[in-house]
Amino acid sequence: KQEVTQIPAALSVPEGENLVLNCSFTDSAIYNLQWFRQDPGKGLTSLLLIQSSQREQTSGRLNASLDKSSGRSTLYIAASQPGDSATYLCAVGSLSGNTPLVFGKGTRLSVIA
Amino acid sequence: DAGVTQSPTHLIKTRGQQVTLRCSPISGHKSVSWYQQVLGQGPQFIFQYYEKEERGRGNFPDRFSARQFPNYSSELNVNALLLGDSALYLCASSLQDRGLTEAFFGQGTRLTVV
Question: How close, in Å, is residue B24 to chain A by CA atoms?
Answer without folding.
Answer: 14
